[in-house]
Amino acid sequence: MVQTTQVAIIGAGPAGLMLGRLLELQGIDSVILESRSREYCEARIRAGILEPGTRRTLIEAGVGERMAREGILHGGVHLRFYGEDHYIPVDELAGTEPLTIYGQTEVVKDLINARIAGGAPLLFEAEDVTVHELSSDAPLVRYSHGGQEHQLRCRVIAGCDGFHGVCRQSIPSEAQQTWQREYPFAWLGIMAEIFTPEDELIYAINERGFALRSMRSRQLSRLYIQVEPDEDIANWPDVRIWEELHARLATPGWSLPEGPVIEKGITPMRSFVAAPMRHGSLFLAGDAAHIVPPTGAKGLNLAISDVSTLARALCALLKDGDATLSDSYSHDCLRRVWRAQHFSWWMTQMLHRDPNDDAYGRELQRSQLQYVCSSPAARRSLAENYVGLEL
Ligand code: APR
Ligand code: PHB
After folding, report:
1. 222 and which of 10, 26, 214, 349 could share a cystine (Cβ 3.0–4.6 Å)?
2. What are the pLDDT digits (tens) for 92-123?
3. Whose atoms come closest to the Cα of 343: which ligand?
4. pTM metric for this prediction
5. How far, in Å, is the centroid of ligand 2 from the Cα of 230?
């Protein structure tokens, strides 16, 4: 039997779930198909910094209540290089609300709960998803679930299935252009039970490389260090990780408290953009269309901004038959995508020790850090990008 819906959403990460939510609020039906289990999606650890616009979108969509209660407001960052500390009050400099520290994992849990409470279809462990007839107004999705094969006929497919998903790969290569950059390092991240009274992040670099102190709550810290791109986590017992964190984050009069490490893993660093973000009746959103290195925490914010734009476009298309916004969807998103691409690349190259760099490059990097911390114009530029463009 062929099922029908207005929008078939592939992927239940923040992009797919938020799109489903925004469409539901507009009375548009959707089915979300996710290849992993609910437990897996709710346990996956990702970044946790929400721009003011992302916070507002979650609240307006009625899924921000726990975030507003439990999230920590975060108004600035410390840039710490070679032991020298500089504080950048990003909200004040950009003239915006502060950011919010609230894990992507928690955003995903809240969106899944809201979807299930509303009774709209969300299928976990949907296997072998494939998308067809993309140049028609009635594309088809095939998948299997519970050992049975299914077909889903719809008006639009939303490819929210992340970087490794099937949707982008279903677009003929001649119909899409891609840009990418790989970095000669990765991040090793740990979650540690440490009480942190401060609410600011510390981005640090010295001759041993990059380190970041972030958090998920007052009781839970998230810490990262730059490592080799192909590093094996087995080479990093906790004691070695703490030694590097202390050495890289050190500054006079401040020391990093230690606590039990409850999770650790390695994140690769990559920049990637595919455009256009639409092919016929398939629209890509979030990591399916673009990836940024994690420095600056733009990934989740970009995913939410893409689907806000997409929800408006699909509303006009499916309710009023007006294709203007869906025709400009890719163009409208890419402006913000490229700004975040540049910012994430810029933060990454300014804050990491590149093994291929020479002594000249390292002096340029140090000069750039000094300038960013001391020039009011440069501080403000960092702040504007860190809080994100207006939605
Ligand atoms: N079929 C169905 N679901 C799939 C498939 C498939 N073939 N392939 C992938 N998925 C699912 C993944 O299991 C995942 O749950 O699509 C979802 C994509 O979610 P994310 O990777 O979280 O991507 P997105 O929703 O765009 O959110 C972007 O996530 O990776 C971070 O840093 C990134 O913060 C950013 C955010
Ligand atoms: C995180 O908390 O995981 C985090 C914070 C800031 C970043 C990247 C990741 O720039």
Report:
1. 214
2. 999 999 999 999 999 999 999 999 999 999 99
3. 2
4. 0.97
5. 21
